[in-house]
Amino acid sequence: MSEAQPKGARSCISRYLSSWMHALWTSLVVVLQVVLLMYEGHGDTLGILGDIFFQIFFTLEIIARFTFCYRSWNPRYIPSWDWIDLFITFTCWFRFADPALKALAAFRLVRLMSILPKTKAETEAIFHSVVAIVQVLSVLLIFFIIFGILGVQFFGGALNGRCIRNGTTPSASTLLNDRTCNKNPASTDGYHCPANFTCMPYHNPQHGWMHFDNIGASILTVFQSVTQVGWTDNMYIIFDSGSTFAWLFFLASIILGSQFLMNMLTAVLCDSFQSRERSAVWWKWLECGVEWSGV
To answer: Residue 163 forms beta bridges with which residues?
Structure first.
């Protein structure tokens, strides 16, 4: 036999907390708090009073929801939204000691997504596909490590060459231009300095961020290529350093990383969303069958 439904005041409070009216008023308070966060000053009276009001309001609201809307605190029966709101509400109490924690209140805007059914379904699909996303991200991490090591082995220390005037030390005044050059005079590949200039180590491209001298910078450069933002510029910079076959490295990283692995991550999210839609249709059909049978 199923447990009896709550009666009296408890039932009324539970229905109100689940109604659209409560969601509307709470959303207005969330928006008001975020607007106050954007325009308030540090330590002004309005900001302090607003912090106290919003903190008390959301604390009482989260206590009421966990008390009247759920019969147990089993995570399986409590929406992810409420756990996030509970964490934000509890953490924001410490912002009176550290004002920087006040910024966490901005994450309450995520709660507004629960009002629209379609947006709520998409966000819940992301929450329920965390395990699959972590698996894909693990494959991506292995991919970045492998190509990061390849970048260090193939192009490490090759991108800091610049044309420096003969008989001078490398500096901005003795620099011909900011183009990468080939430091190997015996090689015919890449860009070679004109007369009276010698290719010498000076600095790496893009203000020192783009290079393969260590595994961290190498992974960062590979990640930039996978995003397909400025990867052609990076490839031509490596061409100038004398690495003629750098196009194979970038072609492989873009095909595997951008076209395959990143699309796999998108496919995981799409599959999770479609699975939840199929599950919702199944439960709706089952409920209709139960009502039809008179159970």
So the answer is: 199
Helices (H), the chain: 8-17, 20-39, 45-68, 80-92, 117-128, 130-155, 215-226, 231-240, 246-253, 262-293
pTM (2 decimals)?
0.62
DSSP 3-state of 208? helix
Angle in degrees, 0-180, between the axes of helices 130-155 and 215-226, rounded to the nearest 10? 120
Task: Give strand pairing partners of 197.
Answer: 165
d(CA 14, CA 8): 10
Cα–Cα nearest to 58, from 35, 103, 92: 92
Nearest to 204 by CA among 148, 156, 263, 269: 156
CA torsion angle 243 247 253 255 (round to 10): -170
- Residues, the chain: 295
Coil, helix or strand at residue 164: strand
At 59-117, the pLDDT tens digits run: 888 888 777 777 666 666 677 677 777 888 888 787 666 666 767 777 777 767 666 66
The conformational region for residue 179 under phi > 0 = left, psi -120 to 50 = alpha, else beta, is beta
